[in-house]
Amino acid sequence: MARIWLVPAAAVLLLVSSCSGRSAAPEPTTTTAVPAGSALVVKIDNVAAARPQTGLTMADVVYVEPVEGGLTRIAAVYLGKLPPVIGPVRSARETDIDLLGQYGRPTLACSGSAPQLAPLLRNAGMETGCQSAVPTAYFRDSSRQSPHDLFVHPDKLPKGAGTVTPEQTGPAPAGGTPVTKQHEQVASVGFDFEWSDQKWLISMDGSPLTTTDGGRVGAATVVVEKVTTRAGTVPGDAAGNPSPVGVTVGSGPATVFRDGKSFQATWSRPSRTDATIFADAAGNAVPVADGPLWILLAPVS
Question: What sign results for the dihedral spanned by CA atoms 126, 127, 131, 133?
């Protein structure tokens, strides 16, 4: 079973706001690592103007979340080595509250959130490394336009707490359907995956996904997790447009892509502090392969 074991989270104060200052990017610091048993989660911009991103190839797990206006945002989870710089960093969303409960008390790096979201994040017990709490960890890249210009030095962020065990990996299950190319849709964003050189090469909206520091982005496993959505309780953007909340507690259909094959599965998760489990129709585990894992939270159409 693909899972991440968790510990209950304790409440901490989350301060969130945005900074409008601009400065040239400082020289990157050296690569560091997340302390054993903790996680860093960075909310990364994913609109066309934000690409290419930085630091994405070193993420252990990448979630693609639907947000307002048919757009998507990335929650990049780092459990091991950290790149010197990650970004562009954007704001938290209500989906993060349940989704990130799988990681104990992660450090959450974000540019801010709607004021109404702060108490919800605080009650969820998340540690924070957001901009207002640790302003010295962030900088603005003068070569990019706001709001796609905010980046973070992850080694300057506070450390998360709790015990995190990475998802279970193992050999591919028996069977599966051979596939070398796959198209998936999350809101209005198109994703394409091509099996090449033992990994899934990722494209978005018809263009190869690359990063400024790691070249072409690929994944060992891609999971399309079908989720229902509900209306958010807080505004999703500055104009007050609501952001859909992906429901990640419960169960639903999923497809696991690994080793050049697809495997039909069901995802299940009893509560926000439980691991997400992927299993086939007979209840047998569908483990993921070693390497980067991408999970698309695809709204049920």
Answer: positive
What's the longest Cα–Cα distance across the chain? Answer: 56
β-strand partners of 108: 41, 128
- Cβ atoms < 10 Å from Cβ of 18: 17
Which amino acid does the sequence have at 300?
A: V
- Name the more confident of 216 and 12: 216
pTM above 0.85, yes or no: yes
Residue 276 sits in a domain whose CATH number is 3.50.90.10
d(CA 73, CA 166): 22
Is there a domain that residue 217 lies in? Answer: yes
CA–CA separation, 90 and 130 (whole Å) = 10
Which pair of tokens denotes residue 168?
Answer: 């279970």
Q: Which amino acid is at 152?
A: V
The model's pLDDT over 188-223, given as tens digits with 9 standing for 90+, comes to 999 999 999 999 999 999 999 999 998 999 999 999
- Confirm if 140 and 73 have CB atoms less than 8 A apart: no
Within a domain: residue 17? no
Tokens representing residue 121 in the block: 């994040």
Burial class (CB in 10 A: 0-12, 13-18, 19+), 142: exposed
Helices (H), 133-238: none
Domain count within the chain: 1
